[in-house]
Amino acid sequence: MLKAPQTIYDRLRLLEQIDGIDVVTSASYRELAYEALTNPEVNVSLQQAIADRLHQANLQLGMQTVDGDSY
C-alpha cells in the first residue's frame, strides 16, 4: 500500500542529510518515492516535487560515495 505522497516527500528530506539514516531505511524511502512517481493517482505537481527531492538525494548519495573512493 502506498504511503501518503506528502509523507514520502518529507522523508526524502532525510536522505539529503549527511548522516541522516542507515542504508536500509534509505533504500526503503527511495522505493516508496519510485512507487509514488509511477502511481497515476498521485498529483502531478507532487510527483514533480518528489522527483526533484529524490534527484537531490541521489546527487548527495553520489557525492558521498565518490568522496571516499580514490579512483
Shape: globular
Task: Count up the helices.
Answer: 3
Look at the structure and give the mean pLDDT: 83
Instruction: Write the H/E string, N to C.
Output: HHH
Residue runs with pLDDT of under 50 for 5 or more positions: none
Strand content: under 5%
Helix and strand content put the structural class at: mainly alpha
Q: How is the main sheet built?
A: none
**Termini gap:** 41 Å
How many β strands by DSSP? Answer: 0
Summarize the amount of helix as a percent range: over 70%
Radius of gyration: 13 Å
Structure in words:
- The protein is mainly α.
- Helices cover about 70% and strands about 0% of the residues.
- It is built from 3 helices and no strands.
- It has helices at about 5-15, 25-40, 45-65.
- Helix 1 (about 5-15) runs antiparallel to helix 2.
- The longest helix has 24 residues, at about 45-65.
- The N and C termini lie far apart (about 40 Å).
- The model has no long low-confidence stretch (mean pLDDT about 85).
